[in-house]
Amino acid sequence: MVGFRHNFDSIASKPQLYAVPVDSAEFLHLVRKLYVAAREVSPIDSILSSSLHNVQHVKDQLDATVYDLQSSLEQIDRFERRLSDQTFIREVSGLNEQPEHARAMDEIFQQALEKNRLILWFYVRNNPGKIAILAVLTIFCTIFLRTLRKKVSANGLLRQDFDGQLVLRYPLLSAIMIVVCVFQFIFPDPPWVFASLLWVIASTCLTIIFFRFITAYWMWFWCMIWVLFLLACADNFILQASRSERWFMLGLAVGGILVSGWYLLRGRREELREKWIVYFIWFLVVVEILSIIANLAGRFNLGKGLMVSGFISVVIAIMFLWTVRLINEALTLASDIYQMPERQLFFVNFAAVGRQAPRFFTCS
Questions:
Q1: 340 against 63, higher pLDDT
Q2: Residue 67, pLDDT score
């Protein structure tokens, strides 16, 4: 609009418009033309001037809003650095002591619910393209796995127990789990509510895939750890510390230790499909013990962080191990079935792709 205004003023300053003829008749004719042109141009000039004024006013408001947001972000960064520096400082009284401050739990729940709702709404609104990419990848992966299953079944190679073919048991659930686990990293700095939502979706898919595939002994372990993981995620939505929440944290940590310790001492590790899971179970036990110590000592943030991270670590580790396994199964089956590129598999040359998932997935 500034450019239009500049062009408009440049035309009005042309010297040809002000060349006065000597003859009076021509002068009167020129005056009439200038009068008509002025009448035609006047509304445009007024509208342009008014629009420029309004735009400038909006720009001033926008600059003020941007300044406020930048100031708020800097303040949040200072608060985060301060909290990081105070990680090992005692914030609340011990569990055996009288609390210094108390607040109604319904108020705490309402505040946490409203804040997480707003955070999720704003993050989804700001990243619609990445969410669409995740959905499209899931659709393509589902089509690929269903096509692969039909081909394997048509060749009479589909096993009833799905041993080595688990990825084909539920193509949609396998696709959701693979895509979520692999492509969750395209989201920049996701808030807790969004990241935990992705983890809950992927872990739910894995739970259904596990059903009647792994032994009942380890299926019970996974279900108990998964339930504790869901409760830990729900607890992490709560923002303000309370005595009730601290007892709840203590119960979750003790539950994780008892479940993990029971299965570690009972053995039967030969039934595990993925042997690396044992190390993550030991990690869970150690972290939850540290969480209990921090909670009892009044280090609320440290205790809560350790409690939640312990369950998250073991669940995500199991999901990634099985994601790699499912990818390897899909590549192996595809490279065996499709010796030549075909239309329904988008002309992917599986001989060139290989039979194993990239090392990046294993390292991550």
A1: 63
A2: 85
